[in-house]
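User: Predict the structure for this protein chain, please.
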Amino acid sequence: MIIKLGDDVKYKDRTIKAVFFDMGNTLLDFHQGISDSNKDWMGAEAIAKYLSFISNQQISQDIVWEGFVEKWLSVMPQRSKRVDEFNPYDFLSSFLENKELTLTKEKSLEILKLCDVGYKNHLVVLPGAKEVLIYFKELGVKIGVISNSPQVDEVNIDHFKSTGLDDYIDKYIFSHGAKCRKPSFEIFQLAVDKFNVKSNECLMIGDGLENDIHPAKKIGMEAIHVGKKSEMKSLEQLLGVFNE
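Assistant: Here is the predicted structure, written as C-alpha cells:
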C-alpha cells in the first residue's frame, strides 16, 4: 500500500521519490481495433499521400510498403537479440535515396509519425492508467516511463500527448533514445539518474516479469507486476489497493 507520511511517500517502509511505468500493455494498448497488419498498411498509405504531395511525384502505397515499411517490419523479430534498437531513419533514408528524394529531419520525423497513424487512431488508454498517474502526481512523486519501442522517442511521446497522459509524465526513457533495451540494467539506471534519485527510492510498475519486474528489483527498485498473468490484473485494480 502507498501511504503519505508528512512529506514522504512510503511503500513497504521505503521512501518513494519516483515511479516508473512500462508503456505497452501497462498504460497503453496498441493492439485494439483493426489488426496490426492493417494499421501498418494504413501507415504506408498515409506516407504515400504525404510524399506524393510534397514531391510532386506519384508515389503509391505499394511502393512505400515494399521500399520502406515492409523492410523495417522484417527486422522486428530480431530486436530481442540486440542491446539497442534498429534505427527507422536508416530504413527511411535508404528508401528516400532510392526514390531520389531528400527530406529535412522534420519531414522525415513526420513520415515516422505517419507510419504509426493506424496505431495512433486505435490507441486505447488501459483502465485505471490515467487515475493512477493522477494519484501519484497528487502525492508529489516524479513519474517516468521506461519502455522498449522500435519507434523513435518523438513518435512515442506523441502517443502520450494524443491520449492526454503526457500531462502527468515528467520524463520518458525509451530504448531508441537510450540506445539500450530492457531487461538491460543500463536503461533502468539511466532512468534513475535522470531523476537524480537512488534506485531504492524508485518503484517500477509493468506487465513483464523478465523485462520490467526482475531487472528493476535487481538494481534495487521496488516493483509491482500488473497484467493478465499477475494477481494484479490492471492498474484499475491496483488503484483500489492504494486507496484501501
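The longest strand covers residues 142-147.
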